[in-house]
Design goal:
Blueprint (H helix, E strand, L loop, with lengths): L13 H79 L20 H8 L8 H38 L11 H36 L5 H8 L4
C-alpha cells in the first residue's frame, strides 16, 4: 500500500502548491514503478521455475512413452502370433497349439504433474499465450492416453480370463470347441487393437513433448509433431 503524507507546512503560493503536487506525483510514479518492477521480477522467476518443471515433465513423459512403445510392440507381436495360432486351429479343425511363453514388459503411464499443479494454483498466466496453448495440447494428449489405459487393460484381462477358463494356457495343444475358439479370437483381436491404439496415442504425446522441448510453441506445429509416426 502506498502512503501519501500531508505537507508539514501549508502552501503559501500557487508555486508552492504545484511543487508539492508535482512531488507527490513523482513519488507515486516512482513507488508504482518499483512495485511493478518487483512484480515483474517475481513473475519472471515464477515463469523460469515453471518452464523448468514443465521441461522436466516433458523429458520424463518422452521416456515413459518410449517404454510404452517397447511394451506395445512386444505385446502386439505376441497377440498377433496367438491370433495366427487360433485362426489356424479354426481353419484346420485341429487342436490349438500351445502359446509361446510371454511376459509383458514393464512401463509407466505418462503424466503431467507440473502442468496440473500450475492449473490448480492459477500459475499458468505467467506464460505467454502460445506456450499455454501448446501445453494445453499436451495436457489433452496425456488425458486421452490415460483414458485409453483402462480399455486396453480390460481387453488384455479378458484374454487372460478366457485362457484361464478354457485351459488355453500350458505347454500342450488344447482341444477346443469352435465357439470357444471364436470367443478367444475376438478377445485377442480386441486386445491387440487396444494395445496398438494406446501405442499410437503415446507416439502422439511423444511427438508433442519433443516439439516443445525443441522450443516449438506454435500450436499447428505441435499438432503436426503429434501425427509423426514412431
Amino acid at each position: 500500500m502506498l502512503d501519501v503524507h500531508p505537507p508539514e507546512h501549508a502552501a503559501h503560493s500557487w508555486r508552492d502548491f504545484f511543487i508539492h503536487i508535482a512531488t507527490i506525483v513523482v513519488g507515486l510514479i516512482i513507488a508504482v514503478g518499483i512495485e511493478q518492477s518487483v512484480e515483474w521480477l517475481h513473475h519472471r522467476h515464477q515463469r523460469a521455475e515453471l518452464r523448468e518443471a514443465l521441461h522436466v515433465d516433458a523429458e520424463k513423459a518422452i521416456a515413459d512413452c518410449e517404454r510404452v512403445h517397447h511394451f506395445a510392440v512386444d505385446e502386439s507381436a505376441a497377440l498377433g502370433a496367438r491370433i495366427g495360432q487360433v485362426q489356424a486351429a479354426i481353419k484346420t479343425h485341429q487342436p490349438l497349439a500351445a502359446a509361446a511363453a510371454h511376459t509383458a514388459q514393464d512401463w509407466d503411464e505418462p503424466i503431467a504433474p507440473a502442468w496440473k499443479a500450475a492449473l490448480s494454483s492459477q500459475l499458468v498466466h505467467v506464460l505467454p499465450q502460445d506456450e499455454i496453448q501448446a501445453f494445453w495440447e499436451v495436457d489433452a494428449e496425456v488425458d486421452t492416453l490415460q483414458s485409453l489405459h483402462w480399455p486396453m487393460n480390460n481387453a488384455r484381462q479378458r484374454v487372460l480370463e478366457i485362457e484361464s477358463k478354457d485351459g488355453f494356457v500350458g505347454n500342450a495343444p488344447v482341444a477346443a470347441t469352435p465357439a470357444q475358439l471364436d470367443e478367444y479370437l475376438d478377445a485377442l483381436v480386441k486386445a491387440r487393437s487396444e494395445v496398438e491404439r494406446f501405442d499410437s496415442w503415446a507416439g502422439g504425446l511423444r511427438g508433442a513433448e519433443g516439439a516443445i522441448l525443441r522450443g516449438e510453441h506454435d500450436l499447428d506445429k505441435v499438432q503436426a509433431a503429434e501425427r509423426q509416426p514412431w
